[in-house]
Amino acid sequence: MARPSSGHLVIATWFLAAAAGCGGARPEAASPGAPGSSPEPAPPAGDGSDRHSPAELGRSTLAVTRSLACAIVEGGLYCWGDRDSTPRRIEGLQDLVAVSGAGERVCALDQSGRVFCRGDEEPLHRVELPGPAVQVSAGEDHACAVLADQRIWCWGQFRDGQLGNEPDREIDFEERERRPVRVVAIDDAVSVEAARGFTCAIVATGQVVCWGSSRYHRLGNRGEDGVRYVPVPAMGLPDAVQIGLGSGGGCALRRDGSVACWGGNDDAYDPAAAIASDACAPRDVLRLSPSGLCVLLRDGRVLCGFGDRGGLGRSGECADTIEIRGLAGVVELVGSAGLGCARSASGDVRCWGDPHLGQLGRGPGTAAESRAVIPGIAGADRVVIGREYACARRTDGQVLCWGAYQRCLTEHAAGRDVEPVTRVEGAAPAADLEPGYYFLYVLAQDGRVLAFPVRPSEPEPCGRFFGDAIELDALRGSVSIADAASGVLGLAADGTITFAPSPPRYDEEARRPRPSFRVARVPGAVQVIDFGGGGCARLGTGGVSCWPWDGIFPSPRRRVVPLEGIDDARSIVAGGERAVITRGDGSVASWDARAGLEVAAEIHGVERMLGCCSARLQSAEIVDWDVRCDYGEDRDSCPDTFAEAIHIEGSRDIVDIAFGEECDCAVRAGGDVVCWGSESCQLLGMDFERSLTVAEPVQGLPRPAGRAR
Fold first, then answer.
1. Strand order in 152-156's β-sheet?
2. How far is CA 139 from the centre of its chain?
3. Which of 87, 237, 327, 514 can bridge 701 by disulfide, Cβ–Cβ 3.0-4.6 Å?
4. H/E element, 412
5. Per-residue pLDDT tens digits for 120-179
6. What is the pLDDT of residues 339-357, one digit of tens each?
7. Nearby residues of 354 by Cβ (< 8 Å), 6 or more positions away
């Protein structure tokens, strides 16, 4: 059972160098364009005085990254997330006026024009720039700043030309990434935005210019795919006041309050032609998020799209948008594909989106657990958890699945006709289910084995998580199946165990099928498992026979080893890199090729092991052991494999259970399915759906002095 861990030490480590290594004399602010003091909130929307300059729109006191959310309060930087929902002040940073973030990178700008950044595996440090900065933008793989002299300097990865200058190849590779370089041919910049692999800026005339990788036409230019070190003008955008960039394109806010988006597919090369149709294009827009995925309208509403290639509209099509509820008086917003935050004129910060790592600032990522009954399921007797989905088998053989695709959840939360639980067509009547990483394997009651490819992205229509069934002919007539590396094992009635390689994945091109092969023959076997380093078969007589693999992949004609002294096995399960055996007297044994057979002397009264460290006891209670040693560690250094047992509350009526990374699901005696786990679990239902569309206050964030609620 997955247990989230506290992450505030991670935040502290990120910024540990601030106080020790980021000092020094402060440069003088050299221009009226340089930030001189903390900006006051913009006036409320709707009175005609709410248009801002590109320089103002390019600065933000909020930022979201892949794992953190940050806000500037009274010149200090507070961050939360990374499994710690409590906002914590970053020591050593003060007098800040702007912050920007993307991926694992955070950059901050202080009142005197100094820039501080940290990146992936890179501690916080001051960026040595040739003059004071007036704006900074952090992208996933690089960052850029506009200086007071209106020139742009960038640093970070340079392979795609995103720094706007040819790299000096005589300099050490790591030094090249750390050293800022000046973007060529721009001396009148007013704002800049950095994204993964490319960068765009607005110059004094309002023209948008871009450089870097032109894949997906994300530079807004008709040029062929390639690398552009020199900025090129985005076509049809001479009047931009703000830009927002995703990984595959961007959006621009124009002087008339309309929004134009480009990139994301093979046709959207012209921003002027990529404006969404009048039926859904956002109008009267005051502000974009840095990602281009959210907009603040003049009437005060906030709309967000979901996706990262382009923004709210592209190639003349309307994109799916959701209105974020619970907001009022918004003056600033940031947003990515799964997370957004907004600040109101009163200073309140509210966030919405995926609660996976606690960036919402209201409890996700803590040890507290949520519990939810999955709607629409009755009469279940089996449950499994796979990659971003869970499935239940009913007593009539029907297979029902639900999952965590964000667009489908947001549509369901918005009241649209989307079913959160759907039936898998072609899977019934099912005798057993085996979840793989790329496939859901189903053993039909007639002995056929079917592989349902897991879709690699959000399905259309919602709920169709799998492609059409592919029958594995080599396993026809199986009585037991087990997911194995790159395929599946099937046990035939005569004891023959066959490995069938997985067919092409849903997103793969057709390829020549790889051959199946016979692994072993174990007469009298009734169950087969694979546990990474080998496999085992349980016999109807209570015996267990096992075999090692050559590495982790199944291999043919293995030498079968009967386990001596095991003649009363009730069940076997895969437990990490070992086979875990439940015996008739309630004790537990395990086997792998290196350590051989071992008995867990500290475990008694077990009816059935459910994995390496969970069991259903003879008292009908479910117990989960806190395993002190990770797989692969030296077993001699971890003598206490099983530590304190955790009794799962209310588990006495559970008839089947499945364990996932963030949560667990179980079938109760009455046939309904319940899931529980941390709030980051995306299989729980409505609590997660609400977080995607309703903004709620960040708890524990200090309020600016003198601002009432």
1. 133-138, 142-147, 152-156, 181-182
2. 17
3. 87
4. helix 406-413
5. 777 889 999 999 999 999 999 999 999 999 999 999 998 899 999 987 777 777 777 889
6. 788 988 888 888 887 655 5
7. 338, 339, 406, 682, 688, 691, 692
Q: Delineate the domains of the chain, giving CATH numbers in brackets.
A: 10-21+29-40+55-365 (2.130.10.30), 377-606+676-693 (2.130.10.30)
* CA–CA separation, 223 and 215 (whole Å): 10
Classify 95 as helix, strand or coil.
coil
- Helical ranges in 62-159 per DSSP H: none
How many Cα atoms are found within 13 Å in the side-chain-facing hemisphere of 521? 4
CA 130 to chain centre: 37
Q: Which amino acid is at 41?
A: P
How is residue 460 written in tokens? 């259309």
CA atoms of 116 and 18, how far apart (whole Å): 8
- Can you read off the two tokens belonging to residue 318? 């309307």
Distance CA 275, CA 282 (A): 9
Token look-up 């906002």 returns: 87
645 to 5, 60, 552, 610: CA distances (angstroms): 18, 48, 30, 14
Closest CA to 196 of 136, 146, 156, 153: 156
What residues are paired with 194 via a beta bridge? 199
Taking a C-beta distance cutoff of 8 angstroms, is the pair 624, 676 a contact? Answer: no
Q: CA geometry: angle at 120 spanning 116 and 122, to 5°?
A: 55
pLDDT one-digit tens code per residue, 392-417: 899 999 998 877 554 555 555 555 66
Amino acid, res. 93 = L
> What count of other Cβ atoms lies within 10 Å of the Cβ of residue 705?
8
Supply the pTM of this predicted model: 0.58
- Taking 3-state DSSP, the helix, strand and coil percentages for the chain, each rounded to the nearest 5, stand at 5, 40, 50
- What distance in Å separates the CA atoms of residue 355 and residue 139, rounded to the nearest whole number? 22
Q: What angle, rounded to 10 degrees, do the helices at 686-693 and 406-413 form?
A: 90
Q: What percent of the chain has pLDDT over 70?
A: 70
